[in-house]
Design a protein that fits this description.
homodimer; Jelly Rolls; 2 domains; 4-stranded antiparallel sheet; 11 strands; about 45% helix; globular; DNA-binding
Chain lengths: ~240, ~240
Amino acid sequence: MLAVQSPFARKLGAFVALSDTELSALDRLYGRRKVFPAGRDIVHQGQSAQSAYILASGWVCSYKIQTSGSRQIVDFQIPGDFLGLRSVLFRTADHNIEPITQVEASEVPAKDLFETFSTMPRLATAVLWAASRDEAMVVEHLVGIGRRDAKERMAHFLLELGARLKLVGLGSATGFACPLTQYLLADAMGLSAVHVNRVLRELREDDLLTFQHGQVTIHDLDGLVLLADFDKTYLDHDGPLLR
Amino acid sequence: MLAVQSPFARKLGAFVALSDTELSALDRLYGRRKVFPAGRDIVHQGQSAQSAYILASGWVCSYKIQTSGSRQIVDFQIPGDFLGLRSVLFRTADHNIEPITQVEASEVPAKDLFETFSTMPRLATAVLWAASRDEAMVVEHLVGIGRRDAKERMAHFLLELGARLKLVGLGSATGFACPLTQYLLADAMGLSAVHVNRVLRELREDDLLTFQHGQVTIHDLDGLVLLADFDKTYLDHDGPLLR
DNA sequence: CGAAACCGCTGATCTGCCTCAGTGCGGCAG
DNA sequence: CTGCCGCACTGAGGCAGATCAGCGGTTTCG
């Protein structure tokens, strides 16, 4: 085992126990580091995509725009997450990716990705695994928008975000730093920004959590879990699943 | 190339050009055929899953139940679709799978799946591909629930379903047979059954489509596409993506 | 063959969230 | 220092879709 690992290797390592050869193959993928400023899209809907990205630092969101102009944020990505895997597989992007903060990411050309998959099937499995976890999150998100009211939805979303950040060492049980504006939250949760504001106020008045000045502080974890019907098993597991 | 292919092999073949060795490996996976009656769940939330399934005939839905009792249908599966891949990867199911009609499906034990993936990386890529297409559908579904009103949502859903069925030879441009009840539609679209009924009536009164007696008939395809802001590129492509 | 269950369908009423139309504050460019 | 812009925040009013309550037809089953 190598001593220092990227967040990405750490995440994959949680799925599949990785050999040194596999780890150094990952490091090779991880080489081409780039910096993106906040606000300018990295990938556009419909654009043909030759590369995927691995997020090293900063936050991004993936979203879709309808011709009517309204947008739906599908997911936020945090360090260690894989970006645009689906776009690479389909050779064209079906969604946009926008950096919320300044972002560092490694570019992974499609060719390198496929070569690595062919020569190291276990890595392919690991990536499939990571992609499945992301899909599980999208599914949870779908359930949230379809069947939870605004307050439950917000609570669930922030709990999930907290759990994800904790996994990569960017949060604790009591809270986390969060660069999302109420407008971004609204686009993610299928609400209006006005209503997001009211819901956050309600959560504050109920002494459940505070979201102010880019900081989420959790006051009553049990209360939130109860309200949101939150079950973190889909994010968590104990040790590598494939040895 | 083998002359006769299962719907599943046909679907994967659309993603990756498959050799005879790979096709016969698929046939081996496809062997263990089982029949399930309508209504009794094949997989339960939280249950540990040792097998995935490949749907040969009939319709199923995957859904999640909240402790409050309300349910959200995440997706419907039709012949050729893969069931429970994520459940196998995580070793426990995070959702339920219920047959809507009587169903024939091939059981694929996790062990066989992993072995096939290790020895035939191209098959792993193909499955990753198919899984990505399914995720793209879930994403589109998410956008629908978050940002489309009931009528647009219904139109989009039925257009998508029609396109999928056409791909496996179970529908035409003018319509398709559809065993879904209005209650199932409601649970899928995050609406009440009452409202589903009204929306279907509106679509009928607008001469866009008719959904009666288990049959969807499309009267005005262009009108529907316009209303739903439907873009089928995420379902379609020309020829295998990997040769 | 009657009862129960399911499904499609409808009118009336209620409500969660949207839209509109603002105010106030902090950061930043000129 | 001033004016602008983005963001958090608020009240008033409106509407899409939920909920409640009920009818009629068809299938299933004791």
